[in-house]
C-alpha cells in the first residue's frame, strides 16, 4: 500500500504523507498542504484533526478502550494508587519502589501553601465557585514559587514543581471548601496518604474529627485515576495551546482548569448528579424521563449519557459502576439517586433511540453518585475532576516541551466577513 494519500486539486496531484500510530490508527499529514497548494483544512471543533503525536494515552472510542502508557484503565484502577498513576503519566513508566518513595516524600513535604495565599480564600466572595478559586490560586502559585518558575527546564526543579503542584492542588481544593462554609482550614497531615489527607482536610474540624474510611480512600484513588488523562480533550489541548507559547506550567494549568470548568467538559459531572437530583425531586418516572430526553422540542437534557469519543460503553463508567455497588452494598447505603441511575441505565440500554445513537453511560454518570456518597458537595465535583486530571495536563505539557518538533500553536481559519470596504467619515455612516 502507498505511504501517502493523494489530493487532486485544480488539475494537480498532491501527495500527503500517511502517519500510522502504535495501534494502527492512520492520519494524513497536511502540515505542508497550505505551503504546497494554498489550501487549509476546515474542521469545526477539531473533531477530525490530530494536533500532535503523543505517547501518553490511547483511546479507542468504538471498542471502549482507554490505556495510559499502554496500561488498561481497568488494571490501573484495580492495582495502583493515584500517585503511581501520576508518575506513570508524567515520566512514562510505573515507578520503582525507590522512585515512588521519593515521590511520596515530595508530595508530603510540599503539601502546604504559602501563608500569604490564604488571603485569596478569605477575600473571595462567599458565593465564589470553588473552580474559580482553584484557578486563581494555582496561577498565583507561580508567583510564590519563582525558583520553580525560572528553572522548569532543569530536571530536579521540574520534579519538585510536579510534586508541589500535585500536592498543593488538594490543599487548595480543601481550603476553598472550608472557606465556603466558614470553617477554619485543616492543614495537611504528614502521616496520611494522598487521598486520606485530602478527605481529612475537607471534613475534619476541631469540633468533630473526621474518621477516614479506608473504603472511601480507595474509592477516591480510583476516581482520580480514571480522570487522570483522556488524550486531546478540551482542557488538555488548552494546556498544550497555552504552553506552546512558552507560558509557565502554572499559567498553562490555570488555563486547563478554566477550560475544564465548562458544563460541556468537566462541569458535566455536576450536571449529571443534579439531573438525578432533579428527577428524584420532580417525581417523574424513568419512562417519562427517557421520553423527555428523546423529544427534541423538550429543553430537558439527560446528562451522563453519550460521549464525543466513545461509541461504546465508557470503560471508566464500567470501573466506577462496579465501585458504586461495592461501596453501597458494603456500607448499606440506601440512596434513591442510585436506584434512579440504575433504572435509567437499564432503560437506555434497551431503548432503540439510545442504541442507534450509541448513547451509553459515561464517566460522569457514576462519578457524581460516588462523590455524593462520600459527601463531597455538588459544587466541588468539577474540582475533584481537576485534581485527577492534573497529572495528565502536566504530562502533555512536558511531552510538548520535550518534542523538538513542537512549535507555537496557531490554527488557521476561513474568513467569511466583508471583502475590502472603503473607509467612511463619521458623518457619512448610516
Automatic annotation (TrEMBL):
Entry GO CC: cytoplasm
Instruction: Spell out the reaction equation it catalyses.
Output: oxaloacetate + acetyl-CoA + H2O = citrate + CoA + H(+)
Q: What are its GO biological-process terms? A: tricarboxylic acid cycle
Domain of life, source organism: Bacteria
Protein name per UniProt: Citrate synthase
MF terms from GO for this chain are: citrate synthase activity
Task: Please name the source species.
Answer: Hallerella succinigenes
Q: Which family does it belong to?
A: Belongs to the citrate synthase family.
Query: Keywords on this record?
Result: Transferase, Tricarboxylic acid cycle
Checking PANTHER family in the record gives: CITRATE SYNTHASE
From the UniProt annotation, give the residues forming the signal peptide.
none
Q: Which pathway does the record list?
A: Carbohydrate metabolism; tricarboxylic acid cycle; isocitrate from oxaloacetate: step 1/2
Q: Which residues form the active site?
A: 307, 364
Instruction: Report the NCBIfam families cross-referenced here.
Output: cit_synth_I (TIGR01798), PRK05614.1 (NF004126)
